[in-house]
């Protein structure tokens, strides 16, 4: 499958998944209103955030294909980061709201919940989310963006299963607090994902090195390349998740310049980062030792 066909297939999968999640979201909101179920409403809030995440993933596949411009020299992929920031904040609001509502119900006494419509709506959500999961699974293995979308739907699937369990408990035992307890469980499921999203956003926007990038190991690989004497001014950051960028000044032996091997050395260094560290965008400044000795005066 060609790169363009892969992007098209991913967009089609995401579009169908968005339609499924949006439909189930509306059904769950209506079902929560009819049944009085807080856990169903919590799952709908979870799905609202996941719907935003899926839309961000879809936009990312479209925006990533746009070429860089003189203004956006790295392209437009950082739009995904701002989308993740909004998504993370939505998750925090949903988790806090659900927690407050659930504690209020547990402390304030029993609230009647109609378990039959609750069970029916949650079952519809479970089946629909399972279908969306199967739809996204083939692309989740070779695309970070699609893997994120897959995990969004997996979270919805777990939320629907939690609501079903609560509905069955209420239906069979009449234990109404099961609904509030299920709501708290869904809130607990939301918090780690919100924390992870916001942590990754802060890491990207602060231009920190990606968590899975070992800068020391990269430096050792560069120093182990024939003709390299030293490396300094190493910088690693990410345009968006899964798109690391690397720059460094590399001090070379005089023979590299005399023999015209600079092009070969650049190919070796770029190939090393691409092969061993999945860094596709790397920039190296090759310099002789005498230049490196007085370079600091230009960096003041």
From TrEMBL:
The keyword Transmembrane applies. It holds the Pfam family Cation_efflux. The keyword Transmembrane helix applies. It is a multi-pass membrane protein. It is found in: Membrane. The chain crosses the membrane at residues 12-35, 47-69, 81-104, 116-136, 148-174, 180-198. It comes from Leifsonia virtsii. Belongs to the cation diffusion facilitator (CDF) transporter (TC 2.A.4) family. SLC30A subfamily. Its main location: membrane. Coiled coil: none annotated. Residues 16-205 form the Cation efflux protein transmembrane domain. This is Cation diffusion facilitator family transporter. Residues 210-288 form the Cation efflux protein cytoplasmic domain.
